[in-house]
Design brief:
This protein is α/β, with parallel strands linked by helices. The chain is built from twelve helices and 13 strands. The strands form three sheets. It has a five-stranded mixed beta barrel. Strands 7-6-8-9-10 form a five-stranded parallel beta sheet, with helices on both faces. The longest helix is centred in the last third of the chain and has 44 residues.
Length: 450
């Protein structure tokens, strides 16, 4: 086979060329995906894959880049990674060298939500002992919400239909944005200071977790807890839970339901607010990403030939060997565990426990048989005693008395068998089957002895 004027590469040369092409062609990129196969060996570097519904890519994040992360990466976490496209030459696999990592979407807010929830729960803000009862017939109802939102319209509609005689005072406030939380807390404090309502409704229409975030702020939670007026929260929809819901005296799934709880009747109304702020935030984020990518591309050439990169690659290779060695050690330990189990099974088979158990069972059987023989002997003795008792009863003088005979005795308790043993006027005693008779002899009919 002739190979005229054709370049022949070794595998190492080919991988090196491909690596250079990848790194030269692609600037820094931003990649969004879900973490899987996460590993953190003793070197302190992170190795994982980023995946979506149809593909995945290997990633490496060295210790110097992840030491400032404010969260712990783990499998299943949705993240946004800033990375360089490169090739791991030893295995010929292309990978991303991650320079920065941040949580994506609602994950960060969810984590902050759980941290604050635990803190306030420990402080006692959610305790049932601090919950105030809602008056059944309020003289005046206060509503803390946006004066232009759909929530206030729903509440007024429900209150007008359910309890049209009750006055309503609106305490206007922002319900979305960075400055909303202080204004909500101020409105609660104003309502308590004026003390003109019997119950307060804190309400806002539905939205994303970010839209509802002002109601997850600590300043709002403390304002609700310090309110001497009972408060009903009606924030978002039935599936939406905020910190304000846990602190409030009663949580309603919707603003309309909050009005139903405050008024003396019952009905259901629910509406949603538009999510324009989320769209604006996404547009700003996309613009910032574009600017960052341009800046990262400008810095790429300065980092390409840095000797630190070669050192990091060698460290990555050592980490790979370490992971392989750990895997082999685990396999060897598994074999030892299987062999130990086999020895344990053999020892159990040779153990005297089974013989002892068999002897115990035989002893119990003999004991039961002895009990049965004793029981039979007792039954036989009882039957004999019954027969003898019946014979004894037949010969008993009491049986004779039962047939109508009597036993006569004189005053000395001497049994009389002959009329010659008494005289007229003597007192005698007659023993009957039931009771005794004291008699006086008035007449004698003596019979000569034969």
């Amino acid at each position: 086979m002739e190979q005229k004027n054709e370049v022949i590469y070794t595998v190492s040369q080919l991988n090196n060329e491909v690596k250079f092409i990848l790194e030269d062609t692609f600037p820094f990129v931003w990649v969004e995906g879900e973490i899987s196969n996460f590993a953190a060996p003793h070197s302190g570097h992170f190795y994982f894959s980023l995946k979506d519904s149809s593909a995945q890519v290997r990633c490496a994040m060295f210790r110097s880049n992840h030491r400032h992360l404010n969260f712990s990466p783990k499998d299943g976490l949705h993240v946004l990674a800033k990375a360089r496209v490169s090739l791991y030459e030893n295995r010929g696999e292309y990978q991303l060298i991650v320079e920065a990592l941040e949580e994506r979407g609602e994950g960060k807010l969810r984590r902050a939500f759980e941290v604050l929830k635990k803190k306030l729960d420990t402080a006692g803000l959610f305790s049932a002992a601090h919950k105030k009862s809602i008056p059944s017939h309020p003289n005046q109802i206060g509503v803390i919400t946006s004066p232009t939102g759909a929530a206030i319209r729903d509440i007024l509609t429900v209150l007008k239909r359910r309890y049209p005689c009750v006055p309503v005072i609106i305490y206007p406030t922002l319900v979305q944005g960075n400055t909303a939380a202080p204004t909500i807390a101020a409105a609660i404090e104003t309502a308590n200071r004026r003390n003109e309502c019997d119950v307060l409704i804190l309400a806002r229409g539905g939205g994303s977790l970010e839209d509802l975030w002002p109601f997850n702020e600590e300043i709002v939670a403390h304002a609700i807890f310090n309110s001497h007026l009972p408060m009903i929260s009606g924030i978002g929809h039935e599936v939406d839970f905020t910190i304000a819901d846990f602190v409030a005296d009663v949580r309603a799934p919707t603003p309309s339901a909050a009005a139903e709880i405050a008024a003396p009747d019952a009905a259901e109304i629910s509406q949603k607010l538009n999510r324009q702020e989320s769209r604006l935030v996404r547009l700003i984020q996309n613009k910032l990403l574009s600017v960052k990518q341009h800046l990262d591309w400008s810095q790429k050439h300065l980092l390409q030939q840095h000797p630190k990169r070669k050192l990091l690659e060698k460290v990555q290779q050592l980490d790979f060997y370490e992971l392989t060695l750990t895997k082999l050690q685990q396999q060897y330990l598994n074999k030892l565990c299987v062999r130990t189990q086999e020895y344990a099974t053999t020892l159990l088979f040779l153990s005297p426990t089974q013989k002892i158990t068999s002897t115990q069972n035989q002893t119990q059987l003999l004991n039961q048989q002895l009990k049965n023989l004793i029981s039979i002997q007792l039954d036989h003795s009882k039957n004999s005693m019954t027969t003898l008792a019946a014979k004894l009863n037949t010969l008993s003088p009491l049986a004779t008395l039962q047939r109508g005979y009597t036993i006569a005795s004189d005053k000395n308790q001497h049994i009389l068998r002959d009329a010659n043993e008494v005289n007229i006027g003597d007192k005698i005693h007659l023993q009957l089957a039931k009771g005794k008779l004291d008699c006086v002899v008035e007449k004698l009919e003596k019979k000569l002895s034969s």
